[in-house]
Write a structure and sequence with these properties.
Length: 325
């Protein structure tokens, strides 16, 4: 068994390969062979604000069984730590043994960004949007950097517009400078999420904000991918934006409907307007009417499993990882 760090993940996981592997995985969902039990969550830990969540998955094709163990606590941020800490345990079910423990902050960021890129590419094709295009990023943390890396590597972005969710111009400028240096694409800092969506064709909101960053109607054809919270008690975009979208895509629409049970803004969406990413990728979604197109990222064990499989193969090729036994 080996340990793979966030640095190993950043060095070894190829963004473009991850996007295509996820596309294949979602296409296989309807064929069977992928087991994804419901996640398990415990709340009220530590001082009362902590939570522990498990996300299991098994792919019979590869034989890999994975479980993400995620601990989060907003109180961690008071001491300068990220709210969430996580690790993915990887087992070879055929051999009957654990083969890796993977530090999961970078893994989660990259697989989330790859899923966003997959959805944005499919939505752009559905509407005839020309790619590459101007991509907006609202947020300046690990998720935003991962999205810049993946959108650049997959040819979706011609350039980036950047804004801090908290209004921190120094952090926004730092992200813009990082994007230019790491991708070679232009990046400009703007002030606020509303300024971003006014100029960009595709926008990603990647923050932990529980207050809506976007409230005004979006222009028709705009693609908005939201990877921060979208829960009845905490959401980074206004629920009215969901209700006003021509199409709402989720990587896990069943969970979204459960989370918003009895909440009219999602519960009342017609079935043809709230669709799964798997159906979108399969071409089973008709052309939407006028209005913005929305992807709500919820994350699922399948995505962790696919990313971990690619990472493990790369680590073995390059002889990376710390042996644990």
């Amino acid at each position: 068994m080996m340990f793979l760090s966030d640095q190993d993940v950043d060095d070894l996981l190829d963004p473009a390969a991850l996007v295509e592997a996820l596309a294949t995985g979602f296409a296989r969902l309807s064929q069977g062979g992928i087991a994804e039990p419901a996640s398990v969550r415990m709340n009220g830990l530590g001082a009362g604000s902590g939570y522990l969540t498990l996300f299991p998955a098994h792919d019979a094709l590869t034989g890999l069984a994975t479980t993400k163990v995620l601990f989060g606590d907003p109180a961690r941020t008071l001491s300068g730590k990220p709210e969430i800490d996580a690790i993915v345990a990887v087992a070879d079910a055929r051999a009957g043994e654990l083969v890796a423990l993977v530090e999961a902050r970078s893994l989660t960021a990259l697989r989330t960004a790859a899923t966003s890129a997959l959805a944005a590419r499919a939505l752009a094709r559905l509407t005839g949007m020309a790619l590459p295009t101007e991509v907006g990023l609202v947020g300046t943390g690990r998720q935003a950097r991962a999205h810049a890396r993946v959108f650049a590597a997959t040819g979706l972005a011609a350039g980036f517009l950047v804004a801090s969710a908290a209004g921190d111009t120094a952090r926004a400028q730092g992200l813009a400078d990082h994007i230019v240096a790491s991708t070679g694409l232009p990046a400009r800092r703007l002030q606020g999420a509303e300024a971003i969506v006014a100029e960009a064709s595709i926008t990603v909101t990647a923050s932990l904000s529980d207050a809506p960053l976007l409230t005004r109607p979006l222009k028709p054809g705009h693609v908005l991918a939201c990877v921060g919270p979208f829960l009845p008690q905490s959401h980074e975009i206004a629920p009215e934006l969901v209700a006003g979208s021509a199409l709402v895509v989720s990587d896990h629409p069943e969970r979204l409907r459960r989370q918003w049970a009895s909440q009219a803004v999602v519960e009342n969406l017609a079935p043809e307007r709230l669709v799964s990413l798997a159906d979108l990728l399969a071409g089973a979604v008709p052309a939407p009417g006028a209005g913005p197109l929305l992807f709500l990222s919820d994350g699922r064990g399948l995505e962790d499993n696919i990313a971990a499989g690619l990472l493990l193969a790369a680590a073995r090729r390059h002889k990376r990882g710390l042996p644990l036994r």
